[in-house]
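Supplementary Methods, section 5.1.

A reviewer requested that the exact input to the structure prediction be made available. We therefore reproduce it here, unchanged from the version used in the analyses.
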Amino acid sequence: MTGLDGSGDDPAGGPGDDAMALALQIADAVDGLTTLWSIAAQEARMRLSPHQLRALQILRAAPGLNLTTLAESMDIGMPTASRLCDRLEAAGLLERVLHPLKRREVQLNLTGHGQQVLDEVASRRTRALAEALAGMETDEREALARGMRGFLQAQDGLLPGADRPYAP
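The structure derived from this sequence is encoded token-by-token as follows.
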């Protein structure tokens, strides 16, 4: 792996190597952010698995999805999605309600408690990230912000399924 300080065992090469070296550095940073994110989520009052948390986030972004759409959004099988929803419902985080127009379809919605749990996880994650950012110099934070804006603009349209209600 390549360190963010530019050190690493990558040999110098052609012009495309700069992008590859930076991609490796960003991958390292994303690994660190993922760890920070996971630890912050696990410190919440109610511990959720990454799959449970992701399902709740999808349902917050697109309330009323049916089980099939949730399973497709998460790229998991229907039986797995059904068991996942069973656990979330038993914990009081999710409710199943009959679709008002389609008698055979069940909609999935967050409960108030589910919304509170997501809010707590988001708050803990934001605080953990703010602590890490506070350890950076002001010019480093500004450079990171500029770089993130540029990255988001450059990746726009590259993500598959960007037209879905939630594209994980």
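The chain has one domain: 18-142. These observations are discussed further in the main text.
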